[in-house]
Each structure stands twice: as C-alpha cells, then as structure tokens.
Write a structure and sequence with these properties.
The chain is of the alpha+beta class. The protein contains five helices and seven strands; from the N terminus they run ααααβββββββα.
Length: 148
C-alpha cells in the first residue's frame, strides 16, 4: 500500500482519534447519555397574593416520573427516568440505554400551608401551587412609607 492510497483511505474514513481531538467531547456522544444527565430543570417561583406558584420546565417526562416530598420546611422535587431503545437490522442489533435524574430542593416559607400543596403536570411544565395560610394573607397588605 503506497502513501497515496493511504491518504485517500484516510480522507474517506476519518479516524476516531482525529474526531476526539477536533470536536467537543459531548458532540462525540451525539446528544446521548452524558449530555442528558447534566440537565437540571429551570424553575420560576412567583409570589402571588394567596399562594406561591412554582413552575418547573421538565419536557419529555410523565407525571408518574416525579416524586415530590415535603419534610419539615424542605420541598424536594425529583425525577428518575430510564429509557431503553433497541434498533434491529439485518446484520446487527444495537441497544441504547439512557438514565437521567434530577433533584431540586427549596426551603418553604413559614406562611405556606403544607397540607394543601397541589401539583399538576401539563405540556412539559410541572406546576406546584403552595397556598399561604390565612394569617399570612391578611399580613400581606402593603403599605407605603413616606421618606422624611
């Protein structure tokens, strides 16, 4: 095999090592397992008159995938999901497994009525309504202070 033949073969089939050093590491996994496990869902918390609204962007999950716990003044939202994908063709079988999980914890204010927390999952967004206790609603009346 002469050098010209070797050069042509290299042009047609780039080596793994060439890709490894020239591309970002996560590109080599084609968006597979490593990139999915590092994602933590974004959360918005809105302080409303009668409650707090916690909205978490978590597309691709089902409501059964979530676990929501309240222990003391700590609210914990977590999820674990394992997927298995099998692709069969004439000469080979390829199986791919992916596992993703996250956990987010929040300290609840004392005015939250922990017994009446409600959760709904729709269109990729988990929403928790954290109702305020009646005493806290009354104290929430705003007052403007004049500067002297």
């Amino acid at each position: 095999m002469n050098t010209r033949t070797l050069a042509k073969r290299t042009e047609r089939m780039p080596s793994f090592f060439e890709d490894f050093f020239n591309k970002p590491l996560l590109d080599l996994f084609d968006g597979g397992f490593p990139s999915r496990t590092m994602n933590v869902p974004a959360v918005n918390i809105t302080d409303r008159k009668d409650d707090y609204l916690v909205s978490m962007a978590a597309p691709g999950l089902k409501k059964e995938d979530f676990k929501i716990d309240v222990e003391g003044n700590m609210l914990t939202i977590s999820s674990e999901k394992e997927e298995e994908k099998e692709e069969k063709e004439e000469k080979y079988t390829r199986q791919e497994y992916s596992y993703s999980s996250f956990e987010r914890s929040f300290t609840l204010p004392d005015e939250v009525n922990k017994d009446k927390i409600d959760a709904h999952y729709q269109d990729g967004v988990l929403k928790l309504v954290l109702p305020k206790k009646e005493e806290a609603k009354k104290m929430a009346i705003s007052k403007q202070i004049a500067v002297k």
